Amino acid sequence: MATTAAGASEIPNARTPESASAADGREVVFSVRHLWKVFGPKAERIPEDTSVAKLSVQELREQTGCVAAVRDVSFDVHKGEVFVVMGLSGSGKSTLVRCLTRLIEPTSGEVEMDGEDVCAMDRNALRELRRRRAAMVFQHFGLLPHRTVVDNVAYGLEIQGMGKAERREKANEMVDKVGLAGMEKRRPGQLSGGQQQRVGLARALAADPEVLLFDEPFSALDPLIRRDMQEEVVRLHREEGRTMVFITHDLAEALRIGDRIALMRDGEIVQLGTPEEIVGSPADDYVRDFVRDVPREQVLTVRRAMRPAEDGEADEGPALGPDTLISDAIEAVARSGGAARVVDGGRCLGIVDHACLLNVVARLDGAPHGEVAA
Ligand SMILES: Nc1ncnc2c1ncn2[C@@H]1O[C@H](COP(=O)(O)OP(=O)(O)OP(=O)(O)O)[C@@H](O)[C@H]1O
Fold first, then answer.
1. Domain 17-25+77-105+116-290 adopts which CATH fold?
2. Global pTM value
3. Secondary structure (DSSP) of 188-234
4. Where is the ABC transporter domain (predicted)?
5. Ligand 1 in contact with 4 (CB < 6 A)?
6. Angle at CA 69, nearest 5°, toward 271 and 63?
7. Is the Cβ atom of 249 under 6 angstroms away from ligand 1?
8. pLDDT tens track for 28-38
9. H or E segment at 351?
10. What fold does the segment set 296-361 form as a domain?
11. Cα–ligand 1 centroid distance for 42 (angstroms)
């Protein structure tokens, strides 16, 4: 697993290649195909009408009076991943994620959860889906002010019909899990904003949903508490491996917590990839501009920097795992004074030296394996 060097933890991006890799054999939780959500008059005709479906957002609005909040979007969310939906305000993030459980009704397209057609679910199945299978954690948690912390956490379980003793026990367990032990008897008004968010998180976790859907849950928090909560999410994810879909407009947040990121613009996904793919190989100028200020050495790994080993190099020098961040590799190379080997399972995959590491930092790396762009 990649680690950040001390003092260089602006965007820690610790994840294994397995958790970050795209599909290969991974179980799909949500499968979305050609999803559209159009607001406005006769919205349902827009996706089918090729003469208007390709118009820009502004042209579409002018010609039809409709807003296409989500336009022909397809993707899979894999079991156990943190899937981040990122984009500027108005790019369609909330609409897209609400369509997953039909909190917003899609205009057209397919949504499946665990192979089941969400668009065909009746009212009861939908209620079950939202309560137990894919629970949403909102920015404003809507805590009940007159109830204690533990009763707020138990509330969802009460609705599910769980008995008092059992739900108390479960709620206490969740309060502990999110770091609020000792505060069980307080009321929301006696908690800080960050602590209230933790109560909301504990309440969502208590229902033990297969997927947690977060809609910008931390955007109202001040930066330090926000950072705490991001770490909390990463910790919970590591401990439980629960699938999470997380909306944010904050790139640093997306890079910090996401296994994969779907970057949206005007209702479309312009790039879907790991943080390393998005930062290292932006799909177009829009994405390139979006990630321009990201400290690359804190996101990209030595896989991207390494070059083939020359005679004798494969047997000497410090060994680094292939997921070592460039920032850590810089430290290792600087300390050793020479090149380092990138080693996986005893096999030398390549070499990183001063030049190839600097190429990545200076954005002179056009492609993986240290081939310098022409
Ligand atoms: N009920 C609605 N009626 C009409 N247009 C809507 C409606 N809901 C959303 N929109 C429009 O759809 C587009 C996408 O909105 P959405 O809220 O999904 O974006 P977002 O990326 O989540 O934005 P934010 O980060 O500001 O929450 C916007 O242009 C918005 O104005």
1. Rossmann fold (3.40.50)
2. 0.84
3. GGGS-HHHHHHHHHHHHHHT--SEEEEESTTTTS-HHHHHHHHHHHH
4. 55-291
5. no
6. 115
7. yes
8. 999 999 999 99
9. strand 347-352
10. CBS domain Like (3.90.1280)
11. 18
